[in-house]
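Fig. S4 source data, part A: sequence.
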Amino acid sequence: YGPGAVVTVCICGYPPIQPCPGEGPRYGDFKCNHDRTHRVCAQLVDNSDGQCKELAWNDDKQSFWQITGQERWNWKTRICQPPNPGDSWCICMWATENLIAKVGCDNVHINCAATDILTFLDLYQTVAGTSLHQGSVSRKNVQNPK
């Protein structure tokens, strides 16, 4: 392959990563596989019927922005608008683990088809140890994604 060649690689039966619906134009193709940290496509809003309403991530009905202390940078309107209107955004994989620890697995909204699961697992295990926080993604439950 020469310089500038584009190669799509599917590892262990994994389909190519899908665009994250709502991700902004920072990556061009709207995929969560470009920088070293923003590899998780998380659903942050309910954009059904164009309402663009922040999702509640815990029993206190707090949004992603409230839980992560990012309220003053709330970018929900960018998620719901063109060029890639949707309900999600590529978030930091380390923040994802912290969110799981804070709110529990059932409250974390991840679009697996648009998340770089292999990189998330490999880097997390390399840097942080041998397993993710209890309840989060593991190699076992992503072996045969649908």
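Fig. S4 source data, part B ends here. Residues 4-12, 127-146 have pLDDT under 50 and may be disordered.
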